[in-house]
Amino acid sequence: MTLPADDTSTATATAQRPPARIEGPSAWTGPDIGAHPERWCLQLQADDLHELDAAIRTVQASGLALADITPATFALPRLSGTLSRLLDQLLEGCGFALVRGFPVEHYTLEQTAIAYLGIGAHLGSFRSQNAKGHLLGHVTDLGADITRPTTRYYQTNRGLEFHTDSCDIVGLICLRTSKSGGESRIVSSVTLYNTMRARHPQLCEQLFHAFPTDRRGEIPEGQLPWFDVPVFNWHAQRLTTIYVGQYIRSAQQNFPQARRLTPLEIEALDTFDALTNDPSLNLQMEFRPGDMQFLHNHQVLHARTDFEDWPEPERRRHLLRLWLAPRAGRPLPEAFAARYGDLAPGQRGGIITRETRLTFTLVPE
Question: CA-to-CA distance for 198 and 155, rounded, in angstroms?
Answer without folding.
Answer: 37
